[in-house]
Amino acid sequence: QVQLVESGGGLVQAGGSLRLSCAASGSIFAINVMGWYRQAPGKQRELVATITNTGSIRYADSVKGRFTISRDNAKNTIYLQMNSLKPEDTAVYYCMRVQEGHDYWGQGTQVTVSS
User: Fold this and answer.
1) Which of 28, 32, 55, 82 could form a Cys-Cys staple with 99, CB 3.0–4.6 A?
2) What's the pLDDT tens digit per position in 29-38?
3) What pLDDT score does 53 carry?
């Protein structure tokens, strides 16, 4: 089993910044993908960004140029630096990890961007 603990959500004004963190613990395997998804009220969960253990990165078009995903493999932690936030970024952000054919999810952290 893998446990994911997110932190860093909150309320920010449009144009502001937030940094999310997600720490993984438990049965950790070196080969993995971690990332962030988000779900706004009444909408489906969507990809925000992912990063592999070798550093390959993928972003949703809606966040390219504004969000930066990074990871510290020694700490089994990923980060999401979110800049130039928009009201449409308001959602619950979920950390995920895929390893050995299994996916794991965090409990989610609320990000609210006021206009």
Assistant:
1) 32
2) 888 999 999 9
3) 93
